[in-house]
User: Which sequence fits this backbone?
């Protein structure tokens, strides 16, 4: 096994180890998106989703999922800078779709 093969296997092992946590972070953001669509986004959920998006920025970037990392950055920004009634739901949904697509392609 070459060094590149070993590194690839180690990255794959890390991905499998961290995937449940990445998935749970995506689920929290999805809860916020769903709540926003139903005019039920609380400040607490908004803050939690922004925090989870922040964590995804680094995690996705570390695995080379740069579009997903950029989308997570945008979600964090939208949720951190806006009040719940002014967060653009469609933009948030589109960013989340980008993250999901990147994660599922890994």
Assistant:
């Amino acid at each position: 096994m070459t060094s590149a093969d070993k590194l690839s296997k180690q990255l794959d092992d890390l991905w499998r180890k961290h995937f449940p946590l990445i998935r749970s972070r995506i689920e929290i953001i999805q809860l916020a998106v769903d709540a926003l669509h139903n005019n039920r986004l609380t400040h607490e959920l908004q803050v939690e989703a922004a925090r989870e998006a922040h964590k995804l920025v680094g995690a996705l970037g570390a695995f080379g999922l740069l579009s997903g990392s950029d989308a997570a950055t945008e979600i964090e920004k939208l949720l951190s800078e806006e009040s719940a009634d002014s967060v653009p739901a469609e933009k948030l949904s589109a960013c989340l779709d980008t993250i999901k697509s990147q994660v599922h392609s890994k």
